[in-house]
Amino acid sequence: MAIEVPFGDLSPRTCAVVGGRGFLGRSLVHRLLKLGHWIVRVADSAHSLQLDPTDPGDSVLRDALSCSRASYHHLDVRDVSLIAKAIEGSSVVFYMEATDLDLHDFYLCYMLIVQGAKNVISACRESKVRQLIYNSSADIIFDGLHDICNRDESLPCNWRFEDTLSDVKAQAEALILFANNIDGLLTCALRPSNVFGPGDTQLIPFLLDLAKSGWAKFIIGSGENVSDFTYAENVIHAHICAAEALDSQMISVAGKAFFITNLEPIKFWEFVSVILDGLGYQRPLIKLPASILQHVLLAVKWMHEKLGSRKYNHFMLTHFFYLASHTRTFNCTAAQKHIGYSPVVSLEDGMALTIKSFSHLAEDFSSDICTDSKEQSKADKLLGGGKGLILCLLDFS
């Protein structure tokens, strides 16, 4: 379980969480309020705040709103004036993920993430904010071609990205780090790898979609590739550690980026297997060559583009393919040394908590994938040949 970690200076501080209703933003708001010495300005794109009565984090936020320890502010990161109003009076701004991205729309992604970063920087300078901490991603140094084995922050961005989101996030990170020490603003960026946890809107839901579509049986490639995963609560802890480190004026933190992981590399397919098995789905067993699947994905992408389909989730399919077929591990020594980061939730506990949080989506695998002689399963179609594989991918996407 997560633990409350005390920090030295407990005098009240005001912060703003931009993207405060997203997956990580909600968890960060909850943790800041639980620490007790933060006044939190929650900023997001929704015009009004909708609280979930069943969410413990929202219960904490509701109590904080009632006693003015928290406030909610609508903002559009494309509008500097709205950002300035939302962060007014804050000494720290945590810039989390955007909550209304359409990954099919490059222009929108660029405006919300890259132009959004420019606007957040401008608003911070205008409002005399002291610290800006950006939630970046380890994906920005991955080109989709080469394995990454325990590399540290000296590994540069290749500026060849396997997806649009990594491209624009890399640009946003560069802007935020470049803004360090201008008009007294101190900045840093955190690069978590493969974030998961309760409330996850990407990785875990996508794995469940794979299982329901019949793809849970299959391993892409050899299955021996290793990855770093990061439980959401540890990412939140890293953000708070970074804020404390910047507050102490540590020159080794300002203007720098830091990898954040659970410090427990695991075989990618073992992680997938534990999650799926915990939710009642079959573990992946059958290995498929990555080279064949890569060509099939390209064919499916071409077919959907010709058909003009907006339903097709090319980003998640291709992103998962690259993650699932490459080793990606990162050295977190710098984060441990300079911001005092260490995980507060182990990988095993994080996986168990995640499985519990998604238990409402647990299903009996045998009821979803028909294996009797009357109905051919998606897996059977796939094993039937290349044509069946394309049909299965089209159906899944």
From TrEMBL:
Transmembrane segments: none annotated. GO terms for biological process: steroid biosynthetic process. GO terms for molecular function: oxidoreductase activity, acting on the CH-OH group of donors, NAD or NADP as acceptor. Residues 16-289 form the 3-beta hydroxysteroid dehydrogenase/isomerase domain. It comes from the Eukaryota. Keywords: Oxidoreductase. Belongs to the 3-beta-HSD family. PANTHER family: BIFUNCTIONAL POLYMYXIN RESISTANCE PROTEIN ARNA (PTHR43245), SHORT CHAIN DEHYDROGENASE_REDUCTASE FAMILY 42E, MEMBER 2 (PTHR43245:SF51). This is Reticulon-like protein. It comes from Rhizophora mucronata.
